[in-house]
Amino acid sequence: MEHLSGTEAPIEGRLRLIGALVTLVFALFVGRLFELQILEGAVLQQRSARNSVRTVRLEAARGEIVDRAGRVLATTRPAFELQVVPNDLKNAQLEYEALGQLLSRDPEQLREAVGQPRGRSRFQPVTLADDLDWQQLARVETHRFALPGVETRVRPRRYYPQGQLVAHLLGSIGEVRQDQLEKASFAGYRAGDVVGQSGLESRYESHLHGHAGGRNVVVDAAGREVEVLDEVAQKPGDRLVLALDLDLQRAAAQAFADVPEGEPERIGAAVALDVHNGDVLALVSRPAYDPNDFAGGIDAETWQKLRDDPLQPLRDRAIQDHYPPGSTHKAVVAEALLAAGVITAETQTFCPGYFRYGRRTYRCWKRGGHGWMNVVQALKQSCDVFFYTHGVELGIDRLAHFAKSFGLGRRTGIDLPGEASGLVPSSSWKKEHFHQVWFPGETVSASIGQGYNLYTPIQLAVSYAALANGGKVMKPRLVLRLESQDGEVQTRVEAQQVGHADVTAEALALVQRGLTAAVEEPGGTGGRARVPGMLVAGKTGTAQVVGLERTQGMKEEEIPFRFRDHAWFAAFAPADNPQLAVAVFIEHGRHGSSGAGPVVRRILARWHEEQLAAGPPTLGGG
């Protein structure tokens, strides 16, 4: 037998060892391949597909809201947002540093916003900026090749081109809340969807919302889209056409802002209605807010500022707040006195400047008295004693009946959420709420719009429209029609009469004479609302905020702002052919004539200009 030499034996041993090692490594590869392909193949295939094919949601644009002439009040504009997919970030720290420089943001804040997602969340995009300006967008796009996992996308964003001008009327939007998702009306919505949260945006959410689409895309290792596999187009929301006249709205808002030097901007509300069909031609509440602040999700600082503002800019004072109507109520009281037969056109009452009832003495605003007054003169000069005297004869329950027939003390039904009901007091109401009887002396105050009476500006506008149109109480019509996105009419909103004042034509004509005299004749209290070339009928009102003892002895300019009286002015025009009714309320505006009168005049003057420019026919009809 031939033996190997001493040199050959170690070599053969090493070869066998190497062969064994190669076989072992190969066996390990085969085993791992078996595990990946056979044992975990299905799971890994799904995971691979998930990494390479992604579903991108395509949000739908909300429908437009336009005024009666088609001018845009709310629309949608493209907004560029920046997102990161955590799983696709190759060098997260370096990319956060780069994004911080490109966006002028703190890199650590960006890192905290993304967090450390696990599982499927690693593949979900996280939004770091939702409305890039063009400069930011250009910087990011220039460096996209070096930022794997970073994406920029276009999404629709709500835009209100008029800013604060129609804020309370349009309302605001925001992410759908969990309690809303649990309601049947929000079936099909999901967390993160944007919905109307107030105003018309909320009331007509189903019409304005639209339907989202989506597409499946293939992405590369850096998360960039390389191919669109399929797509379902989004369907934009539909259009809302309002009765609003943007020019009239602007005139009213500007009148609130134009104040004498040294005076604060007016706080309050203004409403203008077509007396025949209830069309809301202007609805202003001040102070206001910018609904664009809510369009992309309001930041905490802005929200806190709005909530903490003592002037409450988020409240719609035109419909959500109610106040004592002051002497504007005298027009309705006069109608009640005439309709109930307590007075006639010839009834004369002497005003010495005070009225004694029981042990109390009630003063007229004119200390020296007005002398002999009939109802027309009492309205013209706003004589308190005339209404004290005959209001007690009428009684609170009959007065309440007539006031309610004018639509006062109840919601008007305007297409806006959150409307207050106001209050018309009666003996049964007091017994129910205070468990006390009504005292006749309380009727004295109620007869001039003080005491328990509380009306919203929209209610007062509706009642004066009824005074002007023959007694018809119209539901305020804010929306004229609902249209599809291409302009096809889906629904027309018809004018709706919801009641009729319990008065006679003769009584209405007499009160209209008194209201016209208040504005147009010398000695009338409403001369500040006079408009050249057009007869105006109207009534001032001053509502006390605190008892006279708090301000006794003070000059008017020395009274603290919060203690000043509220100012009202309600009117309709033209007085000889009424078309437009206006109610204006100014918080702490002192006097109806000087505080609210100039705002009424601006609104009426603007409307008169429009009518002269357009020529006949004027507003009215269905």
Question: What key phrases describe this protein's structure?
Answer:
622 residues; alpha+beta; 2 domains; seven-stranded mixed β-sheet; five-stranded antiparallel β-sheet; 21 helices
Description:
Helix 13 (330-339) crosses helix 15 (384-394) and helix 15 (384-394) crosses helix 18. With 622 residues, this protein is an alpha+beta fold. It is elongated and about 145 Å long. The longest helix has 32 residues, at 8-39. Helix content is 35%, strand content 20%. Strands 2, 3, 4, 5, 10, 18 and 19 form a seven-stranded mixed sheet that branches. It has a five-stranded antiparallel sheet with strand order 12-11-23-22-21, with helices on both faces. It folds into two domains: 55-242, Penicillin-binding protein 2a (Domain 2) (Alpha-Beta Complex); 246-614, 3-Layer(aba) Sandwich (Beta-lactamase), CATH 3.40.710.10. The chain is built from 21 helices and 23 strands.
Kindly report the CATH topology of the largest domain: Beta-lactamase
Helix content: 25-40%
Rg, rounded, reads 36 Å
Cα-to-Cα separation, first versus last residue: 125 Å
CATH class of the largest domain: Alpha Beta
Shape: elongated
Tally of helical segments: 21
Please give the domain count: 2
Largest sheet: 7 strands, mixed
Number of beta-strand segments: 23
Unreliable stretches, pLDDT < 50, 5 or more residues? 618-622
CATH architecture of the largest domain: 3-Layer(aba) Sandwich
Mean pLDDT score, rounded? Answer: 86
